[in-house]
């Protein structure tokens, strides 16, 4: 699986619209054997399946499962249906995510903000991957890919998004640990890619301002870079390049110097002040 997902079984979460749908379109265009879409929005999911089915012209089996990945109990039930109806995926893209923003941590609500953010962004990818990973490992002669869409916020703290940053930091740590475990256990057929983009203009971060050296990213550009990294089995994709620079500076500069130089100087710490998010 170095050039295409042709003939592969692909599963994407948060796939009814936005970038999840764009990954699905890419898989259909490359004639994947099947593309399985997970989302909680039943109406949008149905429209997406119909439209992708028309595009595929029968070359790719497109099906969907209505599931809220924040409901951790529903993940195992839905995964069982996928294995029975479609088969274990060869490519898993953990794309679903939510953000509650423009509030300080003490203004958030545990039930409305903290719990669902941690469940969707951090726990759901773990639960979903745990369901399908044994099948990927067992099929040792078939290349498999796991893509975990994290965020630059997980490697660089930012005011007004404390819980979101925590959820993505957890995702990054787990994703890279999983990669190392698979390598250590000699399961080289399964490769994990962790993606840490800055803001993307999908509407999810409407109102957020791109800091210096990190303009708001175009979704088409991000999807293309993620897709190429996934096919190549790249361990980490940081977008834009300045995300890696910021991470490096955070590691070598004293905290207060970093705060002044990067956080305040580059505008990182002010980037969420006008955040509104998707309606």
Which key features would you list for this structure?
7 strands; EC 1.1.1.105; NAD(P)-bd_dom_sf; alpha/beta; 8 helices; 14% strand; oxidoreductase; all-trans-retinol dehydrogenase (NAD+) activity; Rossmann fold
Structure in a nutshell:
Belongs to the short-chain dehydrogenases/reductases (SDR) family. This protein is α/β, with parallel strands linked by helices and 279 residues long.
Question: Can you characterise this structure?
Answer:
The structure is a single chain. By secondary structure, the chain is of the alpha/beta class. It has one domain: Rossmann fold (3-Layer(aba) Sandwich). It is built from eight helices and seven strands, in the order βαβαβαβαβαβαβαα. It has a seven-stranded parallel beta sheet, with helices on both faces. Helix 1 packs across helix 6. The radius of gyration is 18 Å and the shape is globular. 42% of the residues are buried. The model has no long low-confidence stretch (mean pLDDT 94). Belongs to the short-chain dehydrogenases/reductases (SDR) family. Keywords: Oxidoreductase. It is an enzyme of class 1 (oxidoreductase). InterPro entries: NAD(P)-bd_dom_sf (IPR036291), Sc_DH/Rdtase_CS (IPR020904), SDR_fam (IPR002347).
